[in-house]
């Protein structure tokens, strides 16, 4: 059995991600689901090619064939275009590394979507088709850099401050807050519920009654 070379694996990365795009028209909710599946797939492909990596980094996208990343002085965070031979992704050289990583993944999503945008983004009452495409690119970048499973794992281990999570994933605190909202973790209260009820003396023949007691062992916020 012959195994694909490292170059052949890289060549197929973009194709593998594009195969996750449905061949029919999608609602925006479905397009976001596609974006998350693509982000998860990209993470697994990166892990296969670079087992020692801790998440997706700039070098992983820069190493893909026919994608050239340049850092320039731009009025925006980034932009991308096809020059007839390769994709050029221009990133603002003045932005922080965390912002550059997010921008590169955002632009990479636009590259993945090339040729499929009319099926993925059709516009609705809330957003135009182009606004949906931008929102989906942001969502893809967030899912790629802060995977749902990894975020929930870190949260479950007690890492629940935005600053700590941002440092852990190498992203901005804003990106963390957005992902916490998207995953519903920002709605989980760390306050314990009231204690179990204590039975109350009830006359014979009546249904047993209980008294709700306040929790005397609530954790004091640090």
Task: Walk me through what this model shows.
This protein folds into two domains: 6-145, Arc Repressor Mutant, subunit A (Orthogonal Bundle); 147-187. It contains nine helices and five strands; from the N terminus they run αααβββααααααββ. It starts with 5 loop residues before the first helix and ends in an 11-residue tail after the last strand. The protein is 48% helix and 10% strand. Helix 1 (6-18) packs antiparallel against helix 2 and helix 4 crosses helix 6. Mean pLDDT is 86; it is low at 1-11, 191-195 and 216-222. It has helices at residues 6-18, 28-49, 58-62, 97-113, 117-120, 129-145, 148-156, 162-169, 173-183, and strands at residues 67-72, 78-82, 87-92, 198-200, 209-211. The chain is globular, with a radius of gyration of 23 Å. The strands form two sheets. Strands 1-3-2 form a three-stranded mixed beta sheet, covered by helices on one side. It has a two-stranded antiparallel sheet with strand order 4-5. The chain is mainly α.
Enumerate how many helices there are, as a single number: 9
Strand content: 5-15%
The largest sheet has its strands arranged as 1-3-2
Number of strands: 5
Number of domains: 2
CATH topology of the largest domain: Arc Repressor Mutant, subunit A
Query: How would you describe the shape?
Result: globular
Oligomer: single chain
Overall pLDDT score: 86
The arrangement of helices and strands along the chain is HHHEEEHHHHHHEE
Poorly predicted runs of 5 or more residues: 1-11, 191-195, 216-222
Radius of gyration of CA atoms, rounded to a whole number: 23 Å
Q: What is the distance, rounded to the nearest whole angstrom, between the alpha carbons of the first and last residues? A: 58 Å
Q: Report the top-level CATH class of the largest domain.
A: Mainly Alpha
Largest sheet properties: 3 strands, mixed
Helix content: 40-55%
- Structural class, by secondary structure, is mainly alpha
